[in-house]
Amino acid sequence: MSLYYEAAAVLANADNTGGSLKSRIYKQSGRKSSPAQLFALVTESAKWSVVLKDVVEKSGLLAEEKKLSPILALLLSHDLLISKNGVAAPANHVLKLAINRHKARLSAEFTKARIARGHPTLESFKNAVTDGENKTSLAGSGKRIQHPRWVRVNTLKTTVAEQLATTFPGYERTNDLSDVLCAPASSKIYYLDGNIPNLLAFPSKVDLSKSAAYKSGHLIFQDKASCFPAYFLDIKPEDGDVIDGCAAPGNKTTHAAAIVSEQLSKNGGSGDGRKVIAFEKDKARARILSKMVKLASADDIVSIRSGHDFLATKPDADDFQHVGAIMLDPSCSGSGIVGRDDSLQMHLPDPSLGTQQGAKPKGKKRKRDQEGISVAQSSSTIKLELDETVPEETTVQDKFAERLSALSSFQLRMLCHAMRFPKVCKITYSTCSVYFEENEGVVFQALLSSVAKDRGWRILKRQDQVEGMKKWNIRGLWEDGKLQKLGMTDQERHHVLEACIRCNKGTGDGTMGFFVAALIRDEDAPSEMAASYEKCAIEVLAHVEDNEWNGFGHEEPSKEEETVVTASESGTGKKNKKRPRRQKI
Ligand SMILES: C[S@@+](CC[C@H](N)C(=O)[O-])C[C@H]1O[C@@H](n2cnc3c(N)ncnc32)[C@H](O)[C@@H]1O
């Protein structure tokens, strides 16, 4: 069976596998197409289905091609009009012949749809759809919103005033972000962000990817939330060098470099040799990092450690003796990224539309009825979870829970490692995940770890945060049942949650889903907070030991043998039991 028949069967649940899209794809063996191919075709087509439903209906395709069901028409028109490689079938395949007969009409309707939505090029249309166009609506207003194009002005090369005068002449400033989110086609407006300096928002339809300023690194595309960590770190001249522990592709690295550079120029431009030391374990990603750093003209300040595992660094090495701040943005589930959603909606074309006067097509019983894809579905919307959410279908759920647990253990190790650097007194920890386990869960456990206690680490309270973060109102969340043994008072817990920052995706804030918290300590002064947490450390360490990182993807632990403190030892002060691949935290 071809890719398209197989994808249509998955969507129609022809073999009654049921469950989420992933379980329908992965539980069924014996297909010709790879699961990844099927998943990509279905999810990408679903993203475009609002547009393609209209295009297919207006082209009259379904009225004329009896072999095509609405689902097949949608999948094929996606590949014909949008996919780089076109329809994945031999030239004489019955489906390819069918869709190609209507290529001219489909292309004309697609172009009309693009222009009606205000996109001058296919590229900008694609960017907008990837950014979530066609999906969200502003709470309470019913207005459709689009994820804005956030642009950080790279102050290593230019200024906001210079860019407004040169790249954006004729653009008007709005003080209401919702104007940008709901902007009609071709609006020339921008919003100057109130939390992060030098950050602008534009309507998603504005295509800046071809602008000279973007190509030359004067402008950097960076979601607002992703600008929080470098700003939140509140780097001061006395902080000396800064480490970015997980740097590629480098948006936060160049942001930190820009902040350091601003301080240097305030000091009369005299370079005091301060560095942003950027670790990237993956060599291929480090090459991208290197390009981004050069393009941003940050290479004087950024020193790249390509292929270096942050976990394998020795905190007391000479190279790090001037490091006072660490930014940590480790690999995560990416569940906050806009465009990756938990559920899929595929809007299907109505076969009765596009025929003359809307008449039902004549002829034999349509072939599409025989493909296990009922005509009753023809003008409907298919709604499907991407991942498993039904508890009884445990296979995928188990894997997900396992993955989350492995990720949070890895993230906790990274954060605890950062806490060991002798001169470091501030750390930001961030993820683009929406899950408690990767966010507040990691922060709570890190605060209760023995390294936090020994070195006096505590959370940076909201009232002490840099202005733009203090006034951000979405704060940390607690999830019952995830860390029951925490043993903190409600007040202590509230105090930590209030210090944590979250961003939600698909809201009037125009951000992706994100989390960031800042940890601080006073050099050489043990913290009261850590002391008050001491009683809880045993239980939390037990939890960490249970959820040890078990290695996947590119975040494997270093092979070096590390020191471990077991739960019982941490309570008694005994240390230094040697065990491979374990780490005292
Ligand atoms: C979420 S991304 C970082 C994004 C980056 N901060 C930015 O804003 O552009 C995480 C990165 O950390 C890298 N990484 C994962 N584990 C690492 C480790 N132990 N040491 C250094 N880099 C690591 C991954 O390869 C990946 O490129």
UniProtKB/TrEMBL annotation:
Record InterPro entries: MeTrfase_RsmB-F_NOP2_cat (IPR049560), MeTrfase_RsmB-F_NOP2_dom (IPR001678), NSUN5_7_fdxn-like (IPR049561), NSUN5_RCM1_N (IPR048889), RCMT (IPR023267), SAM-dependent_MTases_sf (IPR029063)
Region of interest (Disordered), residue spans: 339-374, 549-585
Basic residues compositional bias, start-end: 574-585
Protein name as it appears in the record: S-adenosyl-L-methionine-dependent methyltransferase
Highest taxon above the source species: Eukaryota
Pfam family, one: NSUN5_fdxn-like
Spans traversing the lipid bilayer: none
Keyword terms of this UniProt record: Methyltransferase, RNA-binding, S-adenosyl-L-methionine, Transferase
List of residues binding S-adenosyl-L-methionine: C246, A247, A248, P249, G250, N251, K252, E280, D329
GO annotation, biological process: rRNA base methylation
